[in-house]
Amino acid sequence: MRYGPDAPSGSLCHDGFSSDGGTCRRFGLSAEDGRQTAVPVAFVSSHATRAGSERYLSLLLEQIDPAYVRSVICLKAGPFADELEGLGYPLEVIDTGVRAPAIISSAWRLRRSLRRSGSAVVHANGVKAALVSTAATIGTDIAVVWFKHDVSRDGWQARLIASRCSRVVAASKAVTTTFRDGQRDKVEVLHYQMPDPPVDAAEGRRLVLAEFEPPEPAAVVTLVGRLDPFKGQAELLAIAPELNEQVPGLRFLFVGGEDPAHPDRPAALQREVTERGLEQVVRFTGHRHDALALIAGSDLLAIPSVTNESGMGKEAFPYVGLEALALGTPVIGYDHGGLPEQVGECGVLVPPDDRSALRDVILRLVSDAPERERLARCGRERFLTLFALHDLVETVAQRYRTAAGDRR
Length: 408
Hints:
Blueprint lengths: L16 E4 L2 E4 L14 E5 L6 H12 L5 E6 L4 H8 L4 E3 L6 H18 L3 E5 L1 H10 L6 E6 L7 H8 L3 E4 L16 E3 L11 H10 L8 E6 L8 H14 L3 E6 L9 H11 L6 E5 L4 H6 L3 E4 L15 H9 L3 E4 L4 H5 L3 E4 L4 H12 L2 H19 L4 H15 L2
Parallel strand pairs: 3-4, 3-6, 4-5, 6-7, 7-8, 8-9, 10-11, 10-13, 11-12, 13-14, 14-15
Antiparallel strand pairs: 1-2
Helix pairs in contact: 3-4, 7-12, 10-13
């Protein structure tokens, strides 16, 4: 099936559907097809950034049978929405604020969109999508499957949203702790999977070294994440002067663009670099399409994410950590959320917010190449065994089919 301007004319419906008076309706696939009958799904994304949950959704859309893809809706305009539109997906943007009136207004717009498309299931990618989708489907037979990627709105709000969902698919055990026993039967953990990245490590190293002035760095610690207060750039900047004093050639590479929610953050981080005299030690690359190569070319990948009192910032199952395992780059970070579940014995984690312990781990590993190589081999094997793409798409498709069947 092709989308967009190159699609065949004469029908607005996807393969497996017929047009009836301008409304797409599913028709069954014959037994001769030898395939499970696809159900029409509306994919609703909470955000339009390029974070891990959006990358997860992008992978599903790329891999799944197009007959499942009835519509794609972003609740915010942004780079991810632009990317989906450029790929020709049937995209709609329903710009949604955070206050109750905005949620209600968007729910009504989404309800009309779901009726127009004839969707039987909503893939709610994130808590905001789940909130709007469950409100939009009140009184209908449309099932909502919530893909839970973080701890946002955990507590009574998350439990209320889950009560209106057919299923909750969580990225890790760490994001299921808010649910009580009565809801456990509809909650399951489905770890991310991803294709084995075809990256040339030597080219990655060349790209990393090109970010710094001669002489060649003794080692490079890289952090990949948007510039917001939770991703941990400040944790590394706080210990960088002491680290650079003990290992003069140590360098830090921050890969990631601005976060619209924190527009002042880049300038604040740059001021901190200047105040600490780290202009030759730290590089900010902005958003990079070749981030995988930069990870592969780094000596360590740091995930020192911090949280607030409500748990915001807790890493559910960081996509960048998965990429580092696949690429053989050792992971260091703070021991909370889904990160220990992800890296197991193949990373080195320290207590949350313990900058001294983080400093000591970096000092130890940058001077211990055999240990870095051991961690790299361990991570690579863990990725291939547990997280390489094999059955994720069919497992998710089965959840759609089950949810649609339960609502009939």
